[in-house]
Amino acid sequence: MKPRTIIDKIWNEHAVRAEAGKPNLMYVDLHMVHEVTSPQAFEGLRLSGRPVRRPDLTFATMDHNVPTLNRESITDAISKKQIDTLFDNCKEFGVELADIHSPNNGIVHIIGPELGLTQPGKTIVCGDSHTSTHGAFGALAFGIGTSEVEHVLATQTLWQSPPKTMEVHVDGRLGTGVTAKDIILSIIAKFGVDFGSGYVLEYTGEAIRGLTMEERMTICNMSIEAGARAGLISPDQVTFDYLKGRRFVPEGAAFDEKVNQWRQLATDEGAEYDERVVIAGDEIEPMVTWGTNPSQGVGIHGTVPYPEDGRNATEKKVIKTSLDYMALEPGTKITDIHVQHVFLGSCTNARIGDLREAAKIIRGNKVAEGIRAMVVPGSQQVKLQAEEEGLDQVFKEAGFEWRDSGCSMCLGMNPDFVPEGERCASTSNRNFEGRQGKGARTHLVSPAMAAGAAIYGHFVDVRNLDKTVSS
Amino acid sequence: MEALTVHEGNTAVLERANVDTDQIIPKQFLKRVERTGFGQFLFFDWRFKSDGEEDPSFELNYPSAVNASILIADHNFGSGSSREHAPWALQDYGFRVIVAPSYSDIFYNNCVKNGILPVRLPENQVYELMQNGKNREYHLTVDLQNQQISDKNEGFQATFEIDPYWKEMLLNGWDEISITLQYEEDIEAYEKRVKV
Q1: pLDDT at A466
Q2: pLDDT score of A72
Q3: Would you say the CATH fold of A288-468 matches that of A6-276?
Q4: Which of A414, A465, B182, B195 is the most core-located residue (most Cβ within 10 A)?
Q5: B81 CA: distance to closest CA in chain A (Å)
Q6: Which residue intervals of A416-457 are DSSP H helices?
Q7: From A147, which residue of chain B is nearest by alpha-carbon distance?
Q8: Where would I find the Aconitase A/isopropylmalate dehydratase small subunit swivel domain in this sequence (chain B) (predicted)?
Q9: Which residues on chain B are in Cβ contact (under 8 Å) with A48?
Q10: Which amino acids of A are annotated as binding site for [4Fe-4S] cluster, given as ranges?
């Protein structure tokens, strides 16, 4: 048989109907639902008298609107209505919901893997663009709009045209202190904010194989920031070890059988992709974005570019517009940029490993004067685990606020946002204009880099911290 | 959804690349549980100044863009969040057609599902349209059946590509779920075969 990529394997496996020249009707193995993009879909079902076809393959949580302080009492009436609506819809249509009181509540892309719902070979969708996160397990996972949410609820399928495939090869070993976030920010900075448009990405190479599951999730999470609906990593022993013992994962002999199936999924030696790009892992530095899209990033020892650095008229204009919004002078050293806020959270970087990495740097230090820093764990489980390890104390003693889980300041739909004109070092995924609050200025970084910025008040090279600490 | 066959209308020119859905409809307006009424919030942070007044320097507020139903935009339009509120807001505001060199995949799908035609044209043709439509009323006719876009007086004419399936959906205004449910037997057979 001709060698195949994991993308081809999962695709062929899930085609319910495949006619030449038409999109295929694809079966969906797991549909995750949250409160913002689902109310109109459930309403559509009600209006047409349709049930949810497979409530057992559907799982809901509430995350975008949830306050991270006093989460039980939502004061914003419209937010509360959206939360209540999801609760009622799940009850009416028989969908399991990790509601605000559940110990399993959290950001949809954090709890899917945590519960073992996310598994290799599955097709996974959610009305949220960061669904690409689940690709870290070797699943084909992508974000959909609300009309498609309704379509999946009603039919458990989606019409999809076969995607083009792209290998994103990260060669060599990462340097010490360089993280998964720096890999993905480097990839997007190098190849552009829409290089993945129309493709499913597969991340390969030594640097990727060496990552933990949580780090792989950070990489796949931001595939959408490269324009790709989905990005994935072939599963391996790291994947299977992570999944073992989780609630929705089979046990005993059934687990071993699953692992045998999962092993077959990995891309075959010699399989061909439509496109291939390569980046040297050992050259990647800790990254900081300076602009208003995720490709506008540079290494910690870099400087803010000049509009004239743009490769064409459009790019020159984009740089100029971004610098105006960010209130940055061209030529400014990244290490000279001061921030007023530090946000450690989001579906990109709020897992236990992220909190541990940040805590290593925070331990024994204080948040710099004038900085508001907060930690928003990705789920209630992450929060609990961190508290068991005493990480909450490390953060609190340094002057961080320690919150409940939710999407929080990544997009500021709940009460957490960055005030106009202020600057935030954020572990989230989007530095768009107004994303963290109207007029807010976002710099995307890894958890370690965010921790460094919290202590020094400006960006620092976290690889050198042992030399410069307590300045 | 409403069928779209031939559309004639005024244009609005948005000369910005990578316009993301956070700009098209900011997050504070995503809390409604209805599909309707989002037009008033379209491009909110760009359209309105902090005091709530319309910002006359924003392209959609130019007198020439009044009643525009065709939006001419730059590369990677609709990137970022999958929020379908973006096409809902564009449609509610009055747009039926968008013309751009490239779109984000999810946004493109969301448009088609809501009866908005996203036309892809080569960059030089889009920039020509931008020049023609800048600061003045400029009407275009978009003929989906024949995949053509043209103006009356400047001599612009172009053909565009669209997936035949999406074209059929838009021309007929079909409800996709009804179509899929015709394949109920195939879905059931699949579920039996792979034991999901």
Answers
A1: 66
A2: 84
A3: yes
A4: A414
A5: 5
A6: 447-456
A7: B113
A8: 1-123
A9: 177
A10: 347, 407, 410
Class for the domain spanning A288-468: alpha beta
Tell me whether 0.90 is exceeded by the ipTM. Answer: yes
Backbone angles phi, psi at B158, to 5 degrees: -150, 155
One CATH from 3.30.499.10, 3.80.30.20, 3.90.1700.10, 3.40.50.360 for A6-276 = 3.30.499.10
**pLDDT digit string (tens) for A304-339?**
999 999 988 889 999 999 999 999 999 999 999 999
| pLDDT tens readout for residues B73-90 | 999 999 999 999 999 999
Taking only the tens place, the pLDDT of each residue in B7-66 is: 999 999 999 999 999 999 999 999 999 999 999 999 999 999 999 999 999 999 999 999
Domain extents for chain A? Answer: 6-276, 288-468
| Contact state of B20 with A438 under an 8 Å Cβ cutoff | no
Backbone φ, ψ for residue B159 (5° rounding): -110, 150
Q: Are B158 and B128 in contact, with CB atoms under 8 Å apart?
A: no
Round to whole Å and give the CA distance between A139 and A45: 28
A145 to B110: CB separation less than 8 angstroms, yes or no = yes
Domain tally, chain B: 1
β-bridge pairing B157-159 and B148-151: antiparallel
Distance from B84 to chain A by nearest Cα, in Å? Answer: 5
Taking only residues 329 to 358 of chain A, the set having a beta carbon closer than 8 angstroms to any beta carbon of chain B reads: none
